[in-house]
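so my prof wants the structure for this chain in the tokens format not the other one, which i didnt know existed until like an hour ago. anyway here's the sequence
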Amino acid sequence: MARTLVGFGEDDLRALAGARSFERGLGYLDAVSGLEVGDGSVAAVVRGTDVYEVELTLGEGTRVSGWCDCPYGQEGNFCKHCVAVGLTVLRRAKEIPHQRAAARTRASGLEAWLAALSREELQALLREQIDGDRELRRRLELRAAAARSDLSTVRERILALIDPRPFARYGYVEYADAPGYARQVAEAAEALRALTVGGQAAQSVGMAEQAIRALGEAYEEIDDSDGVVGQAAAAVAEAHLEACASARPDPQRLAEWVVGQVLGDRNYVTDLDPLDYADILGPTGLARMRQLAAEARRRSPRGWAERYLMERLVKAEGDVDALVALYAKDLAPSGTTHLRIAEELDAAGRADEALAWAERGLRESTAEAHVDDRLVDYVCDRYTRAGRTAETVAVRRDRLRTQCSLAAYQHLRAAALAADGWETEREAALAVLREDARTGRGGGYGGPGLVDALLDDGDLDAAWREAAGGADDRQWQQLADLSRETRPADALAVYLRLVEPLKEPTGDRVYERMARLLLGARACHRVLGTEDEFTAYLAALRAELKRRRKLMAVLDRHAL
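here's what i got, hopefully its the right format
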């Protein structure tokens, strides 16, 4: 029903978010407020560590996408806040069509009313809004100053927006105040863009550089745990780039400024990439930048910023051998640098050299606790494509010995199946995981990797035997879920044991998990033909926890 009315269901949300974010989203249902339904979209506010704005957009069929201004959401992910809003929409599915129709009516009514207003009436309306909204007044005053080329006022206002002192109640911008300060910095970026569009690009360049310097000085006194200030600072840097593209300042002077930023102590604030300026700098500016980078590298041969700057410039020049030589001066123990070299050689059509560097990376990282998985994948992919399946298996076997995880086991299984040798290889692989479980080296996620491997193989009898050696709750539940039909009594005991510790904590996530466990227990009783026992158990549980009205509502929703 919910899918028909709103165009998506819980499975769609779980697929978009992933199991972890979906589970975490269940705990935020009570934090959703201000739900607004539009034509093809839904917006709401979710209160977490901060107050986040969420918008879900419906596409064709059952496609749904989400946006959230939390740090994880801003990276393009369908976060737990999006999940919470989506689930809230599903809970209110019957109301959505009516709310959507009402939103369309309101929108069309607003458009018609504005269109009917005279110029004088629109001006009066805008003045009314300005009087009641200090932030709007400030933005419009800044735009007006830029439009009349009042550069003194614009510079003063931009630097005032960058100044963190109004937010630093104790000499420091605390976490809760960072979003407000970030909004002001974003306003400064918009003002700089307005200057450029208004034909004042050269002035915008100078003001942006002042703003970036001021941001660097202020940033150390800001708790920007969520990265909102950093994002706004990046917008200021982008405004500087746009102004330079329009004004075309002296390339040598610009090169010196860019190098100063990259090598400075505070480039992490804007995360400026020197190659973004390559077209603006031209041959003269790039030559100056190369000269400055070489001098900096000589002064500090192991400096991270110096190495980064030189790598970016050499890469832009297209000299693969020079880039390989530069990378080779500082090889990471994990094999990451070897992989970068291999990828550069691959892109240049030098596949044999690329593989040789990747193989060297594996050899030189053998004793390391952490090896870049992408390097392992790279080598195995090249071996497989060349028909060297035995060597692929050998690499995957070595990885399982050092990283006793389900992922390593799955990779080895796939390689051995392709080489028609899995039956023999499996026994040795399970022996490695069994030894890991015995010694407790902790290679697997949560409980022993051995249990995960057996579950993944579908070898449930063996999984039950090994689980007694220390499986975690996640593994026990997975084992019970897969064994309801074949071992209902054993699965039932697991479900009932896992329900007990959930009686104490509260919250949507806890209640949803309890409901899923109870559904599993009911399924076991049905197979055993003891449904009356489940009815009595559930009645006693409800009576014990009857004061938790939210839990009762969750149980009702699952027909429990």
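also thought this was worth mentioning. Residues 442-446 have pLDDT under 50 and may be disordered.
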